[in-house]
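Supplementary notes for students who missed Thursday's class. We covered one full example, reproduced here. Read the sequence, then the structure, then the short commentary at the end.
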Amino acid sequence: MQDLVGGHVDLMFDQPPNSLPHVRDGNIKAYAVTGKVRLASAPDIPTVDEAGLPGFHVTVWSGLWAPKGTAQEVISQLNAAAVDALANQSVQCRLADLGQDVPARDQQIPAVLAAFQAAEIERWWPIVRAMNLQTKYSQETFVRLDCAFAAVEGAKNVA
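Structure (token representation):
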């Protein structure tokens, strides 16, 4: 970010929490968000579809996991605590200010996070493989992780 603000690089793809303060201060220009919809916290920034790069959808997302084999009761308790926190209006406002969307309540369950993670791995693993990137983990290793509780999804990248 320092190099972009300082004029040393011309373009950067970044997540909203890092970029939006600089956009709001007028230090950088946001051309588009890489999500399918505009950011609620920055509705004047178009989507990549609107900006002329249709289908270039990439989002930053977060999730919470527990070690494989964690008791279901513990996972349920952790999930309930996360759901309660995400229902708090102050938490929602702060996340929105950071450009992050809180998923709908029915999406805040371990099975949804597991399915989303598997889909993301399926989407990106061919690119990792094609680039011949070296990792000590296999695609199967990532798919077999036990998901503990719901994702805080969708910090749409700002380009």
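Commentary. The two ends are 12 Å apart (CA to CA). DSSP finds seven helices and two strands in the chain. If anything here is unclear, bring it to office hours.
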